[in-house]
Structures are given as structure tokens and as C-alpha cells.
Design brief:
By secondary structure, the protein is of the alpha+beta class. The chain is about 50% helix and about 15% strand.
């Protein structure tokens, strides 16, 4: 606030009751008035006091009032000051303190009136208090103000005596000292109050500036994080909304309604397959309204905007409390995840389309393989080769079906009575040509051929993943050993190799999706890091666990431990479907 604004505003606040101030300013805050009106209203109390003085003087001594030149000069100067205060363009004069010429000439007017009214009205020197207090509240020249507060009324009193020829003895000159001293005391109090008010105003302005800087910083941080934020106070009123949320709010605004309330915004729940529900969400179920009710939630999904162009938001809300522990408001955060939803839909469509294109030729291959298997002219060796083709084609078809299931969001594990030893034997036999081609010795240890409960296709997939990895990461001349152990409580099978091995850090991340060791990436061997993660999911679905032990340069051992579930292979056990998270086939390392 400028000195002009401070002086005018403080003067009116202390010389006019608040009700009168509201009436004369028509409810507008004084600081927001034009400078001309502020100066005019600041001069008005002096003008009214002079008018009352003239009225009283006319009642007491009507003949002298209009004949004394000093009194009339003071009245005329006051009227002139009032006219100038209301008419001069103070703001256009350049220097803000030029308006103080009005109270300065007001002191002169008060002295003139006091000198001229000595014979018929007492106490007119008190009129000098009006311009002196205006000076005091302006905070402009505090030392000069204090000097004038004592000297002006004292000069008026002594000039009265000189004007009327009263001898200036010590006692005569001392008698009017009480008025200057009272005005000095009041002016001193006013100057101190004005100084304190200025200091307080400066602190408040500094605090406000710091608060605004913090708000701008917070807004910048939240906008950089690309998260919409709404903060409400304890009464449910919005106190903060960042730019991201303003944009999202505009997206939820109905067409033709530029200023909707909360219940009119286009907010919807999300139905199956991430499709927005046609009906708008009830007002009581909307995120901000729930946050106002002190509900707290995390990552709940809503949509904003029209059905044809929905914006998907992951929404969270938290309440905050004051120092006494009372509810003080809530924060609601809106994260736009529309690109993630679209990416998920694109992925599902891609998987479905690609899987369909792969399944059609595989079905034809399996059909012709079945014809070859029924050909009696094939030798035993040829029948074995055809069997290997059939098993791998069926596995490939199952992997394609897995991709389709991934697009649908689920897998199935079908539990039947099976011979796990025979499954391991078949997978090793299928992998032997790859091992021979790589110059690797593939050794099959002892096997257990007792009926157990499990999914032979899924467990065969696990064995194939482990054996394939061992062959891939074992150099020529190395050995891959597959063994199996059984007891009354569990079944264990291991795949060990004499390959490159891994560090403990790599072992810790081995079952993480898309994880590949640095050595695997540098080697250029194919793989995307999914095989072991899928194997772990399949083993877990059977109630088992898979472990890895490895040391750099000394090879790796993968151990699968499964609970023993005996089954009567002569009976027809029920088929059990177990839900399994969506997985895709691939190589782990």
C-alpha cells in the first residue's frame, strides 16, 4: 500500500465509525476507492467540524462571526481545501505525497480561525487536531508531525493573545499549554500506532508474498507431476485446484453449461472391459463429495467427459487435520490413465489378432501330423519323429491359446491324474536334438513313475523352459542333467548345467518378468525374460515352488519342489480349473 493509500485509509478508519464509513463509501473497501475520493473523504471531517463551529459562533455572536477577517480567512481556506480535495486529479500529479498539502493548509486554517474567534468561541485551536492526525496516520513525516502537534495549537493560543493585546506574562502563556500537550500525546500515540500498523502491514505483505510463492511452487510441482489436485476446506469449499485439474474439469463440463455444479459434471463409473457407464454418477458417490465426507480411498477408477471421448482417472483422497486433531479439509488427486487404458486395449486386440493368425496354420499342421501318425508304412524311428512334431505343435498351439487367454485376462490349469516322470522323459527326449546340435551332453537321471495330480501340459511347459534355458547357456562340451526325486510328502525335479552361471544379484531378479542378465544381453542370445517368470507362476498354481542356485563360471541348478498329491490312476478324477494370472511364453535370461 502506498503512503497515500495508508494515510487516507487510516485517517478515515480512526475518525469515522465503521458504520458511517460503510455508508459514505457505499460498502466499497476504503483502500479500493479512487485516490480523489480517499483524499476528499479524509478532508470531510475537518470541513464538518468547521461548519459546526461556524454554526455555534453564529448563535453566540452573530455580529462578530462575519466581521473578523482571520476567522473568515480560516473558514474560506477550509472550504477551498475541501473543494480541492474532491476535485484535483491527485493521481495524475506524479508525487503521491502531494495530497498532504491539504492537511498542511488545514493547520493554517485552524490557526486563523482560532485567532479570529478568541472573543466569542473557545477551543477552536482544537480544530488543528484533524490535519495533525491526518499527518500522523499517513506515516510520512512522523518527527515533523510531533513538532506540529505541539507547536500549532500553542501558536494558535499565543497568537490569540497577541491579536487581542493580552500581556504575555509567564502565567498567561502557560495556561493554554494543556491543549498542545494533550494533542502531542494523542499524536504520539497515533504515530506509534501508525508505525506498528505499517510494520504489521509489511509483515503481512511478506507473509502473503511467501504464501503466494509457495502456492505457485506447489502448483508448478503438481503440474509437472501431471496429476490433478483439488483441496477443500473443512466446510467443503474449494481452496486450491492446479492447472492439470482445471483442464480435466473442463473436459467434464457439459456442453452448453459453462459453469456446472458438482452434480452436473460428466462423471461416470467404469463398467466391464473399461467401458464407462452411460448413467452419470450420483452426486454423493463422486470423488470430491466423498472426500468432503472424510472418506479415504486409493486408485479408484472414474471417467470424465462424454461417452464418445471418456477420460479415465485413477482417483485417491486423503483427509488432513489441524493441530488439535480436528478435521480441516481433504485432498483429492486425479491421475489421467487414459493412455494406459488405450494401450491395454491395443495390446489385447493385437494379441487376439496375432494369436488367431497363428492358430489357424497350427491347426492344419496338427491335422496332417495325425494322418502321418496313422500311416502304417512309417518306421518306428519315423513314428517317434512324428510324435516329437505332434507334441511340439500341440505345445505351440497351447502357447497361442495362452496368448488368447492373456488377451482375455486369464489362464487355466487343468488338474488330472498324471505321470510326472513320463512328462519329464518326453520333454527331455524332445530337447535332445537341440542338445546334440549344440555339442552338449543331455543326461536324464532317475525318474519316478507314480500317478500324481497335476496338469501335464503346464508342467511339461515348465520342464521344457528349464531344459531349454540350460542348453542355451551352456557351451559346447558342457553337460545338462535332469533328475527327479520322490518321497511321501513332495516331488522334486532338478535341471543342472555346467554353463556360465550367474551372480547372486542376477539370481535374485531371475523370476521377474522381462528380466535378463547383463551377460545374456551382451551375448545376443534370443529371449525376452518371461520363461522363468511363467514357470514360477505355473508351479505356484500347483502349490509348489521353484528355486535357483548359481555361481559365476560353475553353472546353475533349477529345482522345482511340488507337494505330493497321490491319485488313483484307475479312477476318473475330476478336472479342476485353477485361475492363473495372464502369462506369456518366452525366455527368462
Amino acid at each position: 500500500m502506498s503512503a497515500t493509500q495508508s494515510g487516507g485509509q487510516r485517517h478515515v478508519k480512526h475518525w469515522l465509525p465503521s458504520l458511517v464509513a460503510r455508508i459514505i463509501t457505499k460498502g466499497v473497501p476504503f483502500a479500493e476507492l479512487p485516490l480523489r475520493r480517499k483524499v476528499g473523504w479524509s478532508q470531510t471531517p475537518m470541513f464538518l467540524a468547521v461548519a459546526i463551529t461556524c454554526f455555534l459562533a453564529a448563535l453566540i455572536s452573530p455580529t462578530e462571526v462575519f466581521t473578523d477577517p482571520f476567522f473568515l480567512a480560516g473558514v474560506a481556506l477550509t472550504v477551498l481545501n475541501t473543494v480541492l480535495a474532491w476535485t484535483l486529479p491527485w493521481k495524475a500529479m506524479g508525487r503521491e505525497q502531494v495530497y498532504l498539502s491539504i492537511p498542511a493548509s488545514g493547520i493554517v486554517a485552524a490557526i486563523l480561525m482560532a485567532v479570529g474567534s478568541y472573543s466569542f468561541v473557545n477551543g477552536v485551536s482544537l480544530l488543528s487536531a484533524f490535519p495533525i492526525f491526518w499527518f500522523a496516520w499517513s506515516g510520512f513525516v512522523p518527527r515533523l508531525t510531533l513538532l506540529l502537534s505541539f507547536a500549532a495549537p500553542l501558536a494558535a493560543a499565543w497568537l490569540q493573545l497577541l491579536h487581542y493585546g493580552v500581556p504575555l506574562t509567564f502565567s498567561v502563556m502557560a495556561k493554554p499549554l494543556i491543549i498542545p500537550l494533550v494533542i502531542l500525546a494523542m499524536a504520539t500515540t497515533t504515530v506509534i500506532a501508525a508505525h506498528n500498523a505499517t510494520l504489521m502491514e509489511q509483515k503481512l505483505r511478506a507473509t502473503l508474498a511467501a504464501s503466494r510463492r509457495q502456492a505457485h511452487l506447489l502448483n508448478a510441482v503438481l503440474n509437472a507431476a501431471n496429476v490433478g489436485v483439488v483441496v477443500v476446506d473443512r466446510d467443503g469449499h474449494d481452496v486450491f485446484m492446479n492447472d492439470v485439474q482445471r483442464f480435466q474439469h473442463r473436459h467434464a463440463t457439459p456442453e452448453g453449461n459453462p459453469d456446472p455444479n458438482e452434480s452436473e459434471l460428466l462423471v461416470r463409473a467404469v463398467g466391464p472391459d473399461y467401458e464407462p457407464v452411460a448413467e452419470l454418477l450420483a452426486a454423493r458417490d463422486r470423488p470430491v463429495v466423498r472426500a468432503i465426507r472424510q472418506e479415504e480411498f486409493t486408485d479408484e477408477l472414474f471417467t470424465l467427459g462424454p461417452l464418445a471421448n471418456p477420460m479415465y482417472l485413477s482417483t485417491s483422497a486423503r483427509s488432513f487435520f489441524d493441530e488439535e486433531g480436528d478435521y480441516d479439509g481433504a485432498v483429492t488427486m486425479f491421475k489421467n490413465i487414459t493412455p494406459l487404458i488405450e494401450a491395454s486395449r491395443t495390446r489385447d486386440r493385437f494379441l487376439a489378432n496375432v494369436s488367431h493368425e497363428l492358430r489357424t496354420p497350427l491347426t492344419s499342421i496338427l491335422g496332417y501330423v495325425e494322418l502321418l501318425e496313422d500311416d502304417s508304412e512309417l518306421t518306428d524311428v519315423q513314428h517317434q519323429s512324428v510324435g516329437v512334431i505332434s507334441r511340439n505343435a500341440e505345445r505351440m498351439l497351447q502357447m497361442v491359446n495362452d496368448l488368447l487367454a492373456a488377451a482375455a485376462g486369464h489362464h487355466q490349469v487343468n488338474i488330472v491324474a498324471m505321470d510326472l516322470g513320463e512328462v519329464i522323459h518326453a520333454q527331455v527326449r524332445s530337447a535332445r536334438p537341440r542338445a546334440d546340435a549344440a555339442g552338449i551332453s543331455l543326461v536324464l537321471g532317475s525318474l519316478c513313475h507314480e500317478p500324481v495330480l497335476g496338469d501335464p501340459l503346464r508342467l511339461g511347459q515348465v520342464v521344457d523352459n528349464l531344459v531349454s534355458n540350460a542348453i542355451k547357456y551352456t557351451g559346447a562340451g558342457g553337460t545338462v542333467t535332469v533328475g527327479m526325486g520322490c518321497d511321501r510328502t513332495e516331488i522334486t525335479f532338478c535341471v543342472s548345467d555346467t554353463g556360465r552361471g550367474m551372480s547372486q544379484v542376477d539370481v535374485d531378479g531371475l523370476f521377474t518378468r522381462f528380466f535378463r542378465t547383463d551377460e545374456a544381453r551382451r551375448s545376443g542370445l534370443p529371449g525376452v525374460g518371461l520363461g522363468l517368470a511363467i514357470s514360477q507362476e505355473l508351479v505356484t498354481a500347483h502349490g509348489g515352488e521353484i528355486k535357483a542356485e548359481s555361481e559365476l563360471g560353475l553353472g546353475t541348478t533349477m529345482t522345482v519342489i511340488m507337494p505330493r498329491k497321490n491319485a488313483d490312476h484307475t479312477a476318473n478324477p475330476p478336472v479342476q480349473s485353477l485361475g492363473l494370472p495372464s502369462v506369456r511364453t518366452g525366455d527368462p535370461r
